[in-house]
Amino acid sequence: MMKKLDELIVGETGLIKSIEGEGKIRRRLFDMGVTPGASVYLRKKAPLGDPIEITIRNYELTLRKDEANLVNVDVLGGKK
Predict the structure, then answer these.
(1) Burial of 79 (C-beta count, 10 Å sphere; 0-12/13-18/19+)
(2) Which residues make beta-bridge pairs with 39?
(3) At 64, phi and psi to the nearest 5?
(4) What is the pLDDT of residue 39?
(5) Which of 68, 80, 21 has the alpha carbon at shortest distance from 40?
(6) Whole-prediction pTM value?
(7) What is the DSSP letter of 48?
(8) Residue 73 contacts residue 40 (beta carbons within 8 Å)
(9) Is a pLDDT exceeding 60 seen at residue 58?
(10) Residue 44's beta-bridge partner residues?
(11) What is the mean pLDDT of the chain?
């Protein structure tokens, strides 16, 4: 099942399929290791949903909701 990264529920794991957006924001995500094929685990979400904390490539990364909305993820498992 495909979702945007910001739509994942805390505890879900997914595989990044694609990154939308252009220019600086896309390059910034790639530089942080958010690339197609990487496994991602949603660790925490702020009370209003912004920001979110994920584990990717064995480190913790915090993303703003608008950045996470650019990442398409295939959900692998976790909470439903």
Answers:
(1) exposed
(2) 15
(3) -75, 155
(4) 96
(5) 68
(6) 0.88
(7) T
(8) yes
(9) yes
(10) 53
(11) 93
Q: What is the DSSP letter of 49?
A: S
Tell me the HSE value of 43 on the side-chain side, using a 13 A CA sphere: 12
Close Cβ partners of 23 (under 8 Å, ≥ 6 residues apart): none
Cβ-contact 40, 5 below 8 angstroms: yes
pLDDT tens digits for 10-38? 999 999 999 998 899 999 999 999 999 99
| Count of H-run helices and E-run strands, the chain | 2, 6
Q: Indicate the SS3 state at residue 30.
A: helix
Model pLDDT, residue 79: 63
Please report where in the chains the tokens 């295939």 appear, as a residue. 74
pLDDT at residue 69 in the model: 95
Structure tokens at 69: 């909305």
Structure tokens at 74: 């295939």
Enumerate the β-bridge partners of residue 74: 2, 15
Q: Which two tokens stand for residue 71?
A: 């990442």
